């Protein structure tokens, strides 16, 4: 067996898991859609059939006040059981096991009826919660137990009690948010009473042969969070009252430390699970940025944990475990941790999906059935859009020839993967290359398509996915060889001096600033990354925080923006703050409301707030967007063949691989 530890069974006494892989909780948005539970059933069924040992659903509230949003899902009444049965039956038919996560949002609720241990507003939500009365606390404990009992009736194999990430239970545990002076606050024994009573009440309602997972915050990453001794004490108490498995929780949502973004090193937090391993006897689950079977195998084989939790990797590939079982990990569509289609969608109240797998959460809507008429299709450009279309069209039975003018596939991903912290983009290129081979797509590198080739080879359709070219600025002095574009820098065709001005503060500008300032990618150096973000493996302070160790400044970088809005306003909702923090730590000087005048030997001449300035810089890097690369369009149209545009050649906005890959999938379904 290729991954003997990862794929070995786990005996829980009254039941057995077929392997050590837990599909972690993710809110998809289907929970609230009309007919969403049927779609959710299809989503989970594919993952169960894909071999995962145990699935945990997205968070379901035990009562109305605990809902994440006004219309979020809860399980409190018998009439709500039937829709959950649709999910559990689908999973069991596929040979899987599934637990329902019970999540009370507490002060993280996005509605005015929120409650919490104390009347303390969260920094990430607009509403101030009411402090719970003693009666409400006891009623909520009972609601957890009732929800678990109904989950059992609905056919779930167990429940996961969400006790981390800064939600209600975590709020009771920490003095940071618990200022009570009654039996539910004050000493740690009183603060931890709430989760203990919840588990006791659940166990009394569901009996012994029912999985109870507790998601324990092992590393709060906030000031005045739990101490290590408190984490251990709570873990032992949870074991005593009957939890089956303890899952690792890392960081509160309000923490200013990244925990799951692509720049976080793989398995960066497995050390904290390992630290608890010798303290308890129940199985422990390591989590966060575990996205390959090799990483999962190493975590378990090294004794850091008994299981590994992966959430987003099962958005990226439902067949993850089966592919590991068949020893074909190269065929896994790896999660790149971008958050663009999953968490960013969730926080925007949209259905989650996946940048690298647009079928995720659309299993009943996006399928590549055999085509009624087999066509010969030419695809021009092997970036994300072109590769995705080629694979999906070939899956439908079309004959696909993919033309790429350069010597390698990948398009803009070949540039993105050079940014520190974006090394995961290599995995998407690897995956699509494997799929191109697997589905017999003919790949012609170093080949510029022209009309004569199209006509000579009798193509039926043409798909243009030629991407974008950097936008040039027509200003005095901008024809200098010291004014370059971001592609030239990333391709290594120019060397930068010590003082650089970046024109454009969108995603490309931020990436360029990071590329210039970070001499060595800390993502590839986990210990250095932990120190950079102030994470203390010795756990000397509460919450596991320490003073960040920052790199010395070695270049002067200016990030300039024409708009007067906040720098980085258009960045991803869940990752933008990380990029802004990185640039702040590297002492990048940002300026808004900039009018660009000219460039000469003195530097870059600009006007800010009607005040002329000259930036003494060695070079200017233009990151001011891009234009569609439509050089071939008219020539291809003149052939009379149907020509379809996807990706950047269709819309040259901010580089958007999510849209490009999805367009490729949707067009492949249509042709």
Give the key terms:
single chain; 671 residues; alpha/beta; TIM Barrel; Rossmann fold; FAD/NAD(P)-binding domain; 3 domains; eight-stranded parallel barrel; five-stranded parallel β-sheet; 22 helices; 30% helix; globular
Q: Summary?
A:
This protein has 22 helices and 27 strands.
Question: What topology emerges from the helices and strands here?
Answer:
Elements: E1 10-11, E2 16-17, E3 21-23, H1 36-49, E4 54-60, H2 81-93, E5 98-102, E6 115-116, E7 130-131, H3 134-153, E8 158-163, H4 168-173, H5 188-191, H6 193-206, E9 211-219, H7 228-240, E10 245-250, H8 270-277, E11 284-286, H9 293-301, E12 307-310, H10 313-316, H11 320-325, H12 343-347, E13 376-380, H13 384-395, E14 399-403, H14 413-416, H15 425-438, E15 442-444, H16 451-456, E16 461-464, E17 468-470, E18 483-485, H17 486-490, E19 499-503, H18 507-517, H19 526-532, E20 556-560, H20 576-585, E21 589-591, E22 594-600, E23 603-608, E24 611-615, E25 619-622, E26 626-628, H21 633-637, E27 643-645, H22 657-670
Parallel strand pairs: 3-4, 3-12, 4-5, 5-8, 6-7, 8-9, 9-10, 10-11, 11-12, 13-14, 13-16, 14-15, 16-27, 18-25, 19-20, 19-25, 20-21
Antiparallel strand pairs: 1-2, 17-26, 22-23, 23-24
Helix pairs in contact: 1-2, 3-6, 13-15, 13-22, 18-20
